[in-house]
């Protein structure tokens, strides 16, 4: 019985770092522009300019949002010459996003 109580206690307790990361992830997914960017990147990598063109956004807006997403390790980039190509970096969060989009479209 003590093992079950200890296990339950471990499940209920979240450390501050975990709480912060989870809340920031949901913050990222709570912004329509970031959702649009992540949804685009879920399918293939794009440069900042391609993202801006595809989503009719300013390049500075895209760069700002990508920096936020990169800090949360939701996107990553690779450099080719002077161009940065962004792609998804967290399949778990992308799965949550895609399932939520599917849910919204098929309720």
From TrEMBL:
Descriptive protein name: Transcriptional regulator
Domain (HTH arsR-type): residue spans on this chain: 14-107
Membrane-traversing stretches: none
Any matching Pfam family: HTH_5
Signal peptide positions on this chain: none
InterPro entries: ArsR-like_HTH (IPR011991), HTH_ArsR_DNA-bd_dom (IPR001845), Metal_resp_trans_reg (IPR051011), WH-like_DNA-bd_sf (IPR036388), WH_DNA-bd_sf (IPR036390)
Keyword Cell inner membrane: no
